[in-house]
Amino acid sequence: MRAVKISTSTTTAGRPGRALRIAMIGQRGLPATYGGIEHHVAQLGRRLAARGHDVTVYCRGNYSGERRDRLDGIRLRHLPTIGTKHMEALTHSLTSTLAAAGRHDIVHYHALGPGLFAPVPRYLTGSRVVQTIHGWDDLRAKWGGLAQRVLRAGRWMSRRVPNAVIGVSREITDEYGEAATYISNGVERPPDDISPEPVLARGLRPGGYILFVGRLVPEKAVDLLLRTFSRLPGDVRLAVAGGSAYTDAYVAGLRELAARDPRIHLLGYVYGDDLAALYHHAAVYVQPSHLEGLPLALLEAASHGLPLVASGLGCHREIIAAEGPGGRIFRPGDPAGLREALAHVLADRERERAGALTRRDDVLRRYSWDRATDLTEELYLRLAR
Fold first, then answer.
1. Which portions of this protein are annotated as coiled-coil regions (predicted)?
2. Are 247 and 217 in contact (CB under 8 A)?
3. Which of 97, 146, 303, 367 is least enclosed by beta carbons within 10 angstroms?
4. Is this prediction's pTM over 0.70?
């Protein structure tokens, strides 16, 4: 597959060469609640629609209780799926592909599994196919041997079938070499004044808790975080905002760990203004994962000026850039390193917060949804020509 090169200096915001018909396939749906891909699609989709493009997002019928026809200028199509761990994404991607066939200029797949059906629009219709790689799904611990082999097939096909591949981190595009285009996730600057009421309502004190946000899956290493936190002295709390993603056994183990320490708060999924308040009033944000693409939660935490503690994955280092006040790195899977990093941040909160506020400006400059939309739109237009 030949890479499609795009410039990094020319934008087409508000001036598209032509209005495109764009299909998004692979996300669970909109409105976005949990899930980084869903938020990614929501941010890109509404901006592309505002620029005059006809954007259709294919939604799983079991994702949200809301079944709108349109949202922020985006057309929503709700299709049924088989709501099981192994079949949900694949069946919905297949039905979405068949529904989209021949109707769109661009068919944009998100993640490895949905891209298994990219040959249909690529070779049987006049559509151009784009695939965004958000992470290495074939390495996720929740998948058994057969599912991993299917996803590895998707990874193999992602190098050969799409007209263009996008990686959300440098770590991903380095794996693909010149065959991929780097277009990162983005983040928006939050308001400076966010009410602490949602924090207080959950039994937490502003500035008195460590925060983690994300799906409760093994690769996020939340069990490591809970065990390590329990060895930290003091009255600081740990707030975990997230829930199961077909990982009920893993979540049950987390509940057992949390029951041993009354300072641990398992909050379930938290959305919208309540989630913004949790970010805004935390003392430090922790991302202990041993597998990620480019976590939106870490970007969101940085946008609120939070000190960050993250495992030393390449994508985390991209965001933190240089270790120091406001950004601490520990070796993935190392409880002693995680404990030391947390203790370091909590021991000098003023210095760490000052460093985090400086880092916030850098993150907001480097990770922009408007810029991501500019580059994605330019890629679409080049393919369509």
1. none
2. yes
3. 146
4. yes
